[in-house]
């Protein structure tokens, strides 16, 4: 029972990064699917922001994995 707060803290510490990464990847996927369905050529700004979301999600997954592995 004493180890319960420590285990929950380790789950929450990496879980925050992973949940954020999944949300960002889902948002980027939604933007990409909306563009593909609308048959419009996307602006450079939309592609840039979508790419930033994807790379941010990858970075958050890596950070979450490192936290999970170290703690």
Describe this structure in words.
The chain has about 70 residues and is an all-alpha fold. About 85% of the residues lie in helices and about 0% in strands. It contains two helices and no strands. The longest helix has about 35 residues.
What is the H/E order? HH
Largest sheet: none
Query: How far is the N terminus from the C terminus?
Result: 19 Å
Q: Mean of residue pLDDT?
A: 89
What is the SS-derived class?
mainly alpha
List segments where confidence is low: pLDDT < 50 over at least 5 consecutive residues.
Answer: none
Oligomer: single chain
Strand content: under 5%
Which range best describes the helical content: under 10%, 10-25%, 25-40%, 40-55%, 55-70% or over 70%?
over 70%
Number of helices: 2
Write a concise keyword list for the protein shown above:
single chain, mainly alpha, 2 helices, elongated, 71 residues
Strand and helix layout:
Blueprint: H1 4-38, H2 44-70
Helix pairs in contact: 1-2
Short précis:
The chain has 71 residues and is mainly alpha-helical. The chain is 87% helix and 0% strand.
């Amino acid at each position: 029972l004493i180890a319960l707060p420590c285990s929950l803290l380790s789950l929450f510490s990496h879980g925050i990064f992973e949940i954020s990464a999944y949300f960002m990847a889902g948002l980027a996927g939604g933007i990409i699917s909306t563009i593909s369905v609308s048959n419009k050529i996307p602006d450079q700004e939309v592609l840039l922001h979508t790419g930033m979301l994807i790379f941010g999600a990858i970075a958050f997954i890596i950070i979450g994995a490192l936290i999970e592995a170290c703690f």
